[in-house]
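Example 3.2
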Amino acid sequence: MIYFDELSVAQEMEASTTAVDEYKRSDLLLYAKYLRYKAITESGKDYNNVTVEDMEQLDSQIEKELKAFCNRYYIDFNYIVKFQDIDNAVASSRLYKLKLPLPTPITKKEWEKICTIENDNYRRMLFVMLVDAKYHRLHSISIENSATITEDTLFYCHMEKRDIYKAGACKFKNAEEKNFSLGCLFRNGLFDITNNKYRSWFVKFVDISDNPDDVLDYITDYDHLSLHYDRLCGKKIGTCKICGKLFKQSKFKDASFCYKHRGYNKSKAKKVRIGVCIDCGNEFSVMATNTTKCRCNNCQKIKRSNDIKQWKMSHKA
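Structure, written as tokens:
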């Protein structure tokens, strides 16, 4: 389950050139929301302030693009059979926005409350639960939700226990420590059980003040919440100058880039060659090291679609 950043997942789906056999309805909804996000941002509108009416105007465009994506990405997709899944994804994407990696503040009061817990694994769990609860309340994905945050507002946790353990990089010594984790936090009065049938618990120590001076850190890298925790604990954690991701610093020398972009500033810009498409004759640019590309992107998509159709026909015969 994707809790924070659906944008990067949708972009990977869009850029993928590998077809798959089956799809999940959640994947269709995610990509439909992404298509609406692209259409709205490209039109110059503020995505955070869109209305249901703005979304409804895009229905026909989103349905068309989603069908094209399914025909390209899913091998056995048949619109006549699966039209209801497309319709449901288009309808639901009107009401819910794409989850973006927006910054979530952690204040001094919240961090001090977390530090009252002696067990480091429990502190990590509580930190992840706090980020989860604040993110979904501060950055609501509901188009129609305009409720203001007050002292009576409940900050629900959305993540499951196994995902909390993983995101916090918890390393329990034994099964007993792991099994009693939520019970220990509950006895400290830091979260409570809810009667909501959709959510199990909510965090009780959220600081709703708007004073920027009270903010210790802004959570931006949701793939590495444990590194945000380590940085608040005083450990050496760097931020990549290229992608903004967090990474652990070396004991001997601080780096400016993450492992993926390490050495970026040492190498020269990669050379680009200009090719001519063998189908349409138009020019295209590609990395000089790529000597096999002979078609532009549009023609490559058409060829791939035809190859898939031929593959289906040959396997049906």
